[in-house]
């Protein structure tokens, strides 16, 4: 019986040609009883390998190769839980001790963590191979034998290489001399022989060379694939005992990843109290406050509901987890950080009472069972939305500090090869130059990735013919293979795992690229699979906007608002939503939402909850969107698929829109047990549901058959489940998002100046570029004041001009201006006096550099009350930034300054005084006008408060009969018109069957076009490469034209930030 | 007398170098060859040719006559002439020239663009002092070009670098050996003249005129300069023996390229070994014997190939003294058989038992392998299967299997 005890997966980044799942599959295909995954300094692929192996009924053995000081590796395999914990701690120790990518283990590290671990001598890059080559073989083998007494195995590898055999013979000599058992392995770096090519390409990427000059860095042959027992027996026919011993070793491994018991952080409680009693007391105490303004009927229900929730929480031993999350929420409140719990926690009165969530579950009929149930194994999922940026970082650092570096870590995000990165890296390997790489990269835009025959066709279109060129053929082949292979571990957007014992005993922790952050080696799905509970501390730009809006509203409008005290029945908000006037609002501003809102016409808070959830791939693919809309418009009769489902689907007019509804359906109509339901929930949430979903669909059908559900209904339900996999949206999430969406709409409608100021200060966020947001705000009557060195703050601010609140553009948007310089400019001005000239600015803010001065000049910040125009300011600045000796310029500047009494007075003469030595503006400097100004604004700040670039061409457009965006809104169906504008959106949704949506912007608003696949193919280059377009189209319905013809508008060259996506 | 410079810029200057030079020589003796053309002094041609425009016209005419497409410009300053020729601008369009064509830092160029200054005319509006104050003294060079006061001097760089001797025979000669005396005489004359200027040579272009055929040329180089006549004569003789002329010889021409003489001191106390001259002669004798392609310096290739080495025919032996550091590890030397020896091998139960070749046969006493190698899957993929075998009668060989055929590729020494 042969076990392959040394394999390496793609999680040994750039050192393997196979994913861990494929290794497990292949092991099973070859009839082997098990295999060991021993990735380099990581167990990142272990969870995937473990579950895939389990699926195929083989024994998964997990280990890791540890990098030693000399760069060689020492493979270690845990025999038991203690061994795994040691391995995990060892990896953590070496990773956290050194800079990222420079880690290694010392002999002391190995000795300290050796307990419970088996040690193998490794392959050609193994520790013992290196020792033997250095002449220290016997000494080092004796050391290993001492450290791993009776747990050391000599590993023999044969890859039909001449030079391997000498080392093997030396190893065998040592084995006999020191009485150490030996075994055979193939050191598989890939599952299938054909994967050797990908492995070679990874070698090139790792060594930054092309396949042509990689030379002897590449493998000598392709023998490092998984080999069946028969082949291994042939290979080791002279040492058959080496094959037999693999089974003996495998039998010594009594550790499985299933054993990893995760415990929640211990919570310190006063003597005589328990965690449960503390949770109970604290919740009841806080519930009184939270429910003080609620109706009596709700208050009456609270105690009963709390008792029920306490019972389940106590039963599951989750009180510590709730208290920990509550502490984070409390910390946020104390630190004045806006926070909101999200996820299924919104169904819990305990969470609401503790201030973790903002949605009141009783009034909103959210059932606790959907969060936690006593009848089945389920773990809580609490996400906390925080304002992105500093506030979120404060909370994360608080958690690290509170629980310790080795008890907390962010979950990893496995960054994989995607279209462009795959093209670039594989292309470089095949020696394509930058120009060709650019052309190849263009094959994959942000909103489409090609494979197979489609890829070949695109390559041909771009002038590359794979059929003619072997290099291109190989490139295309490897490119397809590399897609979705892990590239490196990044950090998840917010998932944090905290453990009572050292977390590094469960999963290795390593430093993230970002200073002060550590990540665990598993991603969200791995944690979920192993039931490791995490708290998601998610950064939401909109939370920061709302936080800042509340502060600005309080100081400029005198209204003291709170996110949870906004009236949810404001008619103006609903009117705005129904008119789809939602640019800048949270979750309801996308092109698809804008198209849907006038049809769905949300009229109450729950409609917004539906609105947030419905524009998702799940409902769209499952064809729920149109059904819901028709029923809402009264065009289709409401039915419930099956009468048994009426209670579940009543709120959504018989259309399943939420994940919870599908879970309930599976229980009601297919008789799913609680565990089956939990499996379904997991599969729907998984990024890679794979075969799980197939199995669940099968069970669903089986259950429905047993209950006599008609075939058509079955089909309908299974399709819904499949559509929801990966894209399903839980109702509890939708509630939390709807709250933020409503708040953003409320602030936008009633406090536009404050909301937009907050938006700009927290940009980037949302769907649109800052330039588009400015134009939209201007169309709604908001006025902006120009950037001014003497009036602007670093951030955007509100200024009162008469009765009107106007927004002053902040210095923050000047491209290339360092934050500390911008803040120093403002601080110096506020401390002393206004700046009188560029020379004065440079004298008082010496840290400013010439690029920053130039940028400020061109952005119009140095106009000194229009006494200096932009080019003049730039010309002056060129002289002012010349380095000068102390004796000259400073005294000159000082003497100039002394001429003015500038304190609190505008520098009317200052600018002129500094214009030139004789005060005359040089005649060769012409003032920027019209489009030039807009162009300079957009290039230097990304926004312009001047006219829209299209307005400069309006007369010409009118002459040519080209309509403005506003004119295209309402036309006769079938009417053919043209419209022109800046391309701000190109979208090719995965759900839209290759249809592309394009949005143009001009000074009157937006025009939307749908581009059918054949038209898109015809005009692909023009569409993808033009910033401004004239589109001829046929009017379909309000706000939507079907594009027929595209012409680039080359006269305008101003910058356009387009949102291109799938 | 005001200065006047002409510049010819060609897209194919390397190829047209000789023609450009001859055109320039027609107008001036003061010539500087540029990478992309030629610059020459045409001052004082007012009476002889005419004004700058006329000079330009005549140069263009000459170029047209020899059918060399090139741009011509004539201006007072050398820089300006080069600039105009490179951009194909005439002097009267000079102010319209975009600033990008001047040697201005990208950063400064961007600033000019932002200031709305795009052409030389725009820049001419700005007082020179203002520009120098902002962009430093080095910007003076740009201003000088604009004002046609360029400080660039013409540096004549066309000078003799070789010496030629030629001899036309009264009657054709079939055998080169018959010409040795004449060639010896020619070399003597050339080397005597070269030695007068304290120079030497390491490169001869030897050409023989062949009856009713094109001249046949031989390039002969050594890795060291020498004026040793007999040595060169032997080299010439060996070279011609390798590739003799196809018909009777009617003329001989030798071009000797100058170089600085050898700097190392030789033979003061002891004879240095090996004499580079004799080594080179030996190599050439070997080439004559085994063919040019089979002599060279062995070079290991950093590639996964069946035989990862090649012969560098160009590289000449360097003659550096090398101190051998003997490795303690025993390294087996390996002799390749050229060509590989076909063999028939008896295999039973996947075991190699007996080998038979045209030269020997015997029982396989021991063997190791199979050793598999393959690579170059992106190009021309190859793979090999090899065994190391020990024959009972002695000798360890490398056995290779290609398809169904067996070969002995070499022997371990």
Share in β-strands of chain B = 25-35%
Beta fraction of chain A: 5-15%
Could you list the spans of chain B in which at least 5 consecutive residues all have pLDDT below 50? none
β-strand number of chain B:
16
Order of helices and strands of chain B, N to C? Answer: EHEEHEHHHHHEHEEHEHEEEEEEEE
Quaternary state of this entry equals heterodimer
Cα radius of gyration of chain A in angstroms: 33 Å
- How much helix is in the residues of chain A? 40-55%
Shape of chain A: globular
Structure description:
The complex is a heterodimer of chains A (1062) and B (413). Chain A is 45% helix and 14% strand. Chain A has 1062 residues and is an alpha/beta fold. In chain A, the strands form four sheets. Chain A has a seven-stranded mixed sheet. Chain A has a seven-stranded mixed sheet with strand order 8-9-14-11-10-13-12. The longest helix of chain A is centred in the N-terminal third of the chain and has 21 residues. The radius of gyration of chain A is 33 Å and the shape is globular. About 3% of the residues of chain A have low confidence. Chain B has 413 residues and is an alpha+beta fold. Helix content of chain B is 27%, strand content 31%. Chain B has ten helices and 16 strands. In chain B, the strands form four sheets. In chain B, strands 11-12-13-14-15-16 form a six-stranded antiparallel barrel. Chain B is extended, with a radius of gyration of 33 Å. The chains are: A alpha/beta (1062), B alpha+beta (413). The interface between A and B is medium-sized, with 38 and 30 residues.
